[in-house]
Amino acid sequence: MLEWMLVGVGFTGAFTIVYLYRAALRKLGWIPSVESYFSPKGGCAEAVVRQINKARREILMQAYSFTCPEIAAALIAARKRGVTVTILLDHSNEAVTYSELTDLEQHGLKPQIDANHAIAHNKIMIIDGRTLITGSFNFTRQAELENAENLLIFHHHSELIDRYKQNFHAHKEHCLAPGTAKTHVHLRGHPEKKAA
What we know:
By secondary structure, this protein is of the alpha/beta class. The chain contains 8 helices and 7 strands, in the order αβαβαβαβββαβααα.
């Protein structure tokens, strides 16, 4: 009987060690994982801010519409603590007064405008090369409070994150500084006007 108890405790102990080991790896962020959030009022913006607050080296961001002050404040705070923050925005952010574009510029960030497409509709963040945020969720108050949206946060999915980084840098190559992209957008859709 005692021998069977020892065998049972051995198995239980082994399972406990494996469980604790995997829990420690997950806590340290070394096991690929995915989080999902949904709006309205499902904590999407809060989840994005939480990930930005964990950034230590680099944040790469692409946004179609950017009107969420909490996310903007988190990006500004990240820059102040030494994180490199690179932001690519759709050209519509130059036209709307409620975009966070001006606030970002006033705090030393230098967002770029992606005017090479009818709509630059990507909504992503890549944080420290280890975390990818994507989904339909625009970085806006309306997306958080009113829209039906989804948000996925991938941790340590290196191949997927590498593909998103490559796509980010491909778009960055054709981005322009705010205020310089309007002519480019105008001419892009009307090649006959280039010759005029």
